[in-house]
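Duplicate of earlier report; 4-hydroxybenzoate polyprenyltransferase input re-posted below.
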Amino acid sequence: MKRLRVYLLLMRPANIVTSVADVLAGIAISGIFLQESLTSATIGNIVLLCLATIGLYGGGIVFNDVFDYELDRVERPERVIPSGQLSLKGASTLGSSLLAFGIIMALLVNITAAWFAIFISISALVYNKWGKHHSLLGPPNMGLCRGLNLLLGVSILPAALNGIWYVAVVPILYISAITMISRGEVHGSSKKPLYGAVALYSLVILMILAFAWNRDMILFVIPFLVTFAFMIFKPLIKAIKTPTGPAIGRSVKAGVMALILMNSAWAASTGAWSLAILIVFLLPLSLWLSRRFAVT
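Output:
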């Protein structure tokens, strides 16, 4: 049990719940829930894609700490690897196993899903090794991981990708904003990136509204977007007033958790009401896990 807790500390399970929400939103966007009935094979593929993103996100976040080992020895010595709870080799093995598991689960769905899983793995490793250290390319690199994760869900119906691949732009912008401000978590930040996050958050909301408008679902999506906006803007405004490390950290945490609400809005915009509500119920689970395991 002690070893399992160490693994969970490294994998950040609260964040993994948000990645499952990404995939469920992508599945809704594919239009599969608009079919008259779901077969057992389809339900099986939904489960496999959820397992795939658990492996991919978990593996990616493990390698985040693997590549940050030297820095964490100085800034965050309490983390799993620098504190000696798990060796660098053990963490690398865990991360590799999780990524491989994610790719295999996706391959069991279809070859398109497998390619997305591979691209997600590559994008995550590139970010962890190089992207996070680049002020300009780092945020969109991290955003690309989430954009591809959304499309991983859409890939349950590969043909659907031709008409709606562009939805990946929304999580790319959103995660770029979170990544941009997260660099002030330790030492604080100027207000400039925080105002940039306000602009990107607003653009994301407008893009989801436009998507819902084109599908005559605007009234259905508004309650989800209002809740989403409240969750992300309240701590961000506080951080703008006092741009200290702890205030920015709370804003980043809220932004990550709010991904679940954004994904519920995606589902509502497609008319998949039951799924939208199901995704909302992932939020209490993620918040509960965030009180027991680190989010950032």
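The two ends are 23 Å apart (CA to CA).

Merging into the original ticket.
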